[in-house]
Amino acid sequence: MEKHTIEDYRGFTIYYDEDRDKFCADMEFGESIRNAKRGSLKDIKHDIDVFIKENKGFKPFSFILKSSWGDSFKLSYCSAIRSDGCFVVSDDKESKYKSYLKLKDMELACNLDNKLLEKYEAAKVEFELSRKKYDSIEKQIYKNLVQMDLSDFKK
Q: Does 4 share its domain with 44?
C-alpha cells in the first residue's frame, strides 16, 4: 500500500493513497478523530476546515442513551460531531469502537444523573448476588437428584 505525503494543512497531514486512488487525512482534535478520504485535494481540505470548525468549541460529554425498543439504557460518551451532523458516540472514553448517531437518534439521550447511576449499580450488584445464590442452590439440588428406576417400564 503506497501512501505519499502531499502537504501539511492546518496541522493535519494530507497524503495520497495509491491503492484507493484518493486523498486522505487523519484528523484528531482533542478527543475527536476522523479519517477522511476524498477524490480531490480541494475536497479533503474542505473536510479539514469543516472538522476544525465543528470541533473547535465542542466539549465532549457523557449521557445516558435510552433504548428505542424497550426500557433499557446504557451509559454513553460523545466525543465529536461529524461534518454531516452525526454524533460520534462510544460506550466510554477509551473505546476504539464508535457509533454514529443522527440527531433523531440522539433524541433518546438523557442527562447524566449520578444518583440514578449509583442506584442502578447497586441493583446490578444485588442482582448478581441473587444470581450466584440461585446457581448455588441449583447445583445443590442437582447433586441430590436420584436416578429414576425404569425397570418397571421395560418390556
A: yes
**Alpha-carbon dihedral sign for residues 50, 51, 57, 59:** positive
Q: Is residue 27 part of a domain?
A: yes
Helix, strand counts (H, E) of the chain: 2, 9
pTM tops 0.85, yes or no: no
152 domain residue, yes or no:
no
Are 47 and 32 within one domain? yes
In a structure prediction context, what are the per-residue pLDDT tens digits for the chain, which is 155 residues long? 678 888 888 777 888 888 888 888 877 766 666 677 778 888 888 888 887 777 777 788 888 888 888 788 888 888 877 767 788 888 877 777 788 888 888 888 888 888 988 998 899 999 999 999 999 999 999 999 988 888 888 76
State the number of CA atoms in the 13 A half-sphere of 101 facing the CB: 22
Residue 105 domain-assigned (yes or no): yes
Is there a contact between 29 and 14 (Cβ–Cβ < 8 Å)? no
